[in-house]
């Protein structure tokens, strides 16, 4: 007699009846299959004789009645072959035909089938079935259901079921420990591990120990790891997986010595390549690169055949050492072993070639790969962006979007970094729109990259909008904003953001401090620089090389060369940037002889000069008018150090020649140099022409400037002033008229002075200082004293701005166009 399905059965079957119709041949029940169904016989008939025999004789000749025993075997067969949905369908047919489910003996594999389908709704319904049929009295069934809840990511359901279990065996506890670890709750995993042993007297198995060790690695909890190690030793567990887990735990916790002890103590199982790989990776992650290389070489001397993981570990080591030669040997070895088509290995090879400077080979490997995945795409795009190939990075990003139709956070970060380096705001706006559509607009890391991109593109307002729309702002996003203010010549904004950041209890780091020092340098406020220096010293950043280099540059720009030199002398470790910073600082303040001596000491210390070094040397020569030394260093840069001069070095040489009046040689150098001259180098020569009165050359140079930058008002005014000096009023008026007709406006002049920690700012065309009357009285008195001393102006007039020519007799009036602003720091 056919039994009527109960309510739970009808609910469970109803969902699958429409979406998962069971093929007729699967259970031998007569009904019309859906068109999309694939018969069991056509799928397995010629491959699985046992299932064919079940179909042939497993059901009663009366096809309206199903046999529990044979249905159970059929479900088990489906499970063994990995056809979980078919197993579920057989069970649903049992429900449909009212088969006595309480006699069913294969609930654990059936529960696993529901779990493999990751259908949590149906898992909960089968849970209801199990409760109704009292099948949960069987601990094997409960453990199966517990494992399925963890597999479906339902930690709360798993925890509730676990604590309601009347009896818990070692499998139950081990399932919970592993489940907590896989779900990312490492503390929950360790807590359960402790409760299992101390409160319930149940001992974990190898799998639970491995999960607990992995949790210790993730948390870097060395104390818990040592306790588990002691338990493992006491229990006699000595398999390869646990040894690897122990080594990995010690390495992740920074205890290299104990990791080495475990490795050396397990001679009997050291023939496993996995253990060697973990040791090599551990050495690399802890910075023990020489030991990692020694171990890799030792491994090659054994009978162990390296696998793809070994090659990846070795390539990571080569990347850290920047050893391209060894990396190429490993590449060749991987090809000989037939491992070169492994996507992890190809990704490691690509990364190694990029980091070691062979970008072409890295790109070739990527383009020829047949197995590239999103990780490999992300690696090559990020490397292009970081290695000075931003255009290639954006092209690859575009191709990725075409191929996959989406982009994850790693790819978007790389693309934004490329836009920042290129200052391509239009492309950055497109990527911004893409990430908003992708739902990544609130990600704090992407938000920080957006802030940096807009700031680099000189759009500080958009950078601010992105920043204040972030739901959470961390130190990285604050640093991006502060750096943006500093880059866009807004030191007040940088200092204000710093104070706001501290009020939100976010502590500045070295990057923040370097940005703030940059703002101090722009303001030339030595007292503020000293305050920041004191703060950095109190926070323990005094020995940080980045901070020390920033302090050297900032003190020099603030005019305090003595403090700049003191910071340099007190540095325990100096790099090329340290030497270049102090050389440049001394040079711009006219200490050329000290610069020359210091350069010799730099070479004696084993530092290799770079282009920035010679920029500092040539700048020092220029400020001191040392033509002979300037040519000596310029020649040695090219002939001895094999450094190709760039526009910056040529600009220094032109400035040097211009200062001493050798204008023709300066002009010839510009025409002969291999790089394209910009408006700055022509502007330097134009200023020299004005100083030395070479009107004819000034007109030639001015033509070059106007062709390069027609809207630059500064150079036009400089040329106009030169004409005024020679009394060519018509020419001066013509240039002024052109400026007016083109709608060009000169930014108001601004300067400031620091008095007793107050910064007084002077801006043209305003007077709002509350002591302006006293200031003007003092200036008028000084003007009278200057005249009494016999001061005679060089020209009958001075130019203050567009269409403004003021008589020298009224020189005291020139200061009336200034604004005096006091700002308390």
Instruction: Please count the helical segments.
Output: 45
How many extended strands? 5
- Considering DSSP H and I runs of 4 or more, what fraction of the residues is helical? 55-70%
CATH topology (level 3) name of the domain at 458-693 = Serine Threonine Protein Phosphatase 5, Tetratricopeptide repeat
The CATH class label of the domain at 458-693 is: Mainly Alpha
Explain the overall architecture.
- The chain is mainly alpha-helical and 825 residues long.
- Among the domains are: 373-457; 458-693, Serine Threonine Protein Phosphatase 5, Tetratricopeptide repeat, CATH 1.25.40; 750-824, no CATH class.
- The chain contains 45 helices and five strands.
- The strands form two sheets. A three-stranded antiparallel β-sheet has the order 1-2-5, with no helix packed on it. Strands 3-4 form a two-stranded antiparallel sheet.
- Helix 5 packs antiparallel against helix 6 (84-96) and helix 36 (592-604) packs antiparallel against helix 37.
- The longest helix is centred in the C-terminal third of the chain and has 17 residues, at 772-788.
- The chain starts with 6 loop residues before the first helix and ends with a strand.
- The model is unreliable at 1-65 and 794-825 (pLDDT under 50).
Short structural summary:
With 825 residues, the chain is mostly helical. Helix 1 runs antiparallel to helix 8, helix 17 runs parallel beside helix 19 and helix 28 (460-469) runs antiparallel to helix 29 (475-487). The N and C termini lie far apart (94 Å).
């Amino acid at each position: 007699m056919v039994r009527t399905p109960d309510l739970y059965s009808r609910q469970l079957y109803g969902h699958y009846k429409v979406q998962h119709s069971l093929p007729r041949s699967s259970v031998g029940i007569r009904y019309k299959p859906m068109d999309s169904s694939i018969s069991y016989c056509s799928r397995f008939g010629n491959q699985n004789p046992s299932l064919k025999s079940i179909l042939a004789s497993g059901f009663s000749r009366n096809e309206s009645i199903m046999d529990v025993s044979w249905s159970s075997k059929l479900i088990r067969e489906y499970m063994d072959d990995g056809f979980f949905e078919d197993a579920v369908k057989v069970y649903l047919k049992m429900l449909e035909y009212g088969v006595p489910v309480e006699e069913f003996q294969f609930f654990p594999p059936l529960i696993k089938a529901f779990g493999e389908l990751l259908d949590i709704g149906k898992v909960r319904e089968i849970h209801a079935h199990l409760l109704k049929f009292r099948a949960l009295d069987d601990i094997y069934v409960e453990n199966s259901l517990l494992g399925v809840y963890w597999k479906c990511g339902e930690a709360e359901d798993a925890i509730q079921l676990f604590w309601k279990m009347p009896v818990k065996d070692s499998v139950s506890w081990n399932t919970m420990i592993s489940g907590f670890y896989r779900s990312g709750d490492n503390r929950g995993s360790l807590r359960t591990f402790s409760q299992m042993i101390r409160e319930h007297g149940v001992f974990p198995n190898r799998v639970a120990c491995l999960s607990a060790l992995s949790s210790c690695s993730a948390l870097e909890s060395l104390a818990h790891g040592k306790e588990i190690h002691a338990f493992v030793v006491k229990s006699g567990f000595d398999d390869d997986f646990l040894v690897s887990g122990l080594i990995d735990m010690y390495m992740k916790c920074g205890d290299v010595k104990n990791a080495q002890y475990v490795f050396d103590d397990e001679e009997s199982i050291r023939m496993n390549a996995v253990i060697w790989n973990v040791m090599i990776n551990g050495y690399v992650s802890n910075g023990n690169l020489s030991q990692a290389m020694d171990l890799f070489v030792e491994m090659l001397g054994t009978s162990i055949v390296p696998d793809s993981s070994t090659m990846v570990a070795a390539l990571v080591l080569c990347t850290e050492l920047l050893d391209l030669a060894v990396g190429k040997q490993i590449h060749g070895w991987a090809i000989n072993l037939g491992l070169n088509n492994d996507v992890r290995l190809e990704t490691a090879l690509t990364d190694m070639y990029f980091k070691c400077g062979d970008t072409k080979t890295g790109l070739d490997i990527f383009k020829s790969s047949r197995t590239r995945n999103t990780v490999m795409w992300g690696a090559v795009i990020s490397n292009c962006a970081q290695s000075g190939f931003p255009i290639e990075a954006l092209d690859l990003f575009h191709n990725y979007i075409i191929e996959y139709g989406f982009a994850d956070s790693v790819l978007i970060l790389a693309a934004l970094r490329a836009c920042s380096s290129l200052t391509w705001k239009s492309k950055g706006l497109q990527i911004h729109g893409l990430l908003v559509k992708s739902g990544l607009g609130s990600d704090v890391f992407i938000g920080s990259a957006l802030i940096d991109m807009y700031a680099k593109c000189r759009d500080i307002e958009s950078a601010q909008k992105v920043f204040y729309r972030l739901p959470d702002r961390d130190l990285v996003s604050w640093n991006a904003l502060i750096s943006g203010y500093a880059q866009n010549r807004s030191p007040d904004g940088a200092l204000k953001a710093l104070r706001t950041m501290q009020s939100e209890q976010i502590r500045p780091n070295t990057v923040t401090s370097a940005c703030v020092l940059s703002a101090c340098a722009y303001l030339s406020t030595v007292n503020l620089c000293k305050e920041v220096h004191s703060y950095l010293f109190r926070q323990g950043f005094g020995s940080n090389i980045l901070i020390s280099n920033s302090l050297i540059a900032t003190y020099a720009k603030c005019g305090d060369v003595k403090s700049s030199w003191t910071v340099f002398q007190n540095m325990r470790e100096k790099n090329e940037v340290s030497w270049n910073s102090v050389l440049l600082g001394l040079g711009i303040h006219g200490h050329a002889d000290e610069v020359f001596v210091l350069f010799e000491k730099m070479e004696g210390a084993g530092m290799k000069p770079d282009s920035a070094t010679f920029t500092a040397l040539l700048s020092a020569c220029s400020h001191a008018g040392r033509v002979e030394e300037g040519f000596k260093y310029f020649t040695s840069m090219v002939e001895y150090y094999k450094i190709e001069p760039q526009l910056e070095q040529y600009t220094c040489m032109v400035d040097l020649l211009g200062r001493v009046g050798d204008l023709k040689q300066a002009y010839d150098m510009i025409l002969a140099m291999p790089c394209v001259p910009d408006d700055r180098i022509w502007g330097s020569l134009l200023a020299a022409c004005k100083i030395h009165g070479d009107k004819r050359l000034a007109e030639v140079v001015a033509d070059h400037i106007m062709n390069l930058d027609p809207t630059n008002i500064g150079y036009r005014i400089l040329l106009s002033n030169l004409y005024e000096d020679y009394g060519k009023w018509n020419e001066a008026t013509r240039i002024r008229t052109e400026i007016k007709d083109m709608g060009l406006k000169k930014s108001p002049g601004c300067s400031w002075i620091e008095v007793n920690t107050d910064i007084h700012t002077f801006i043209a065309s305003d007077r709002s200082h509350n002591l302006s009357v006293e200031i003007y009285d003092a200036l008028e008195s000084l003007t009278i004293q200057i005249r009494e001393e016999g001061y005679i102006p060089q020209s009958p007039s001075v130019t203050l701005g567009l269409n403004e020519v003021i008589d020298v007799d009224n020189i005291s009036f020139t200061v009336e166009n200034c604004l005096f602003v006091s700002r308390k720091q």
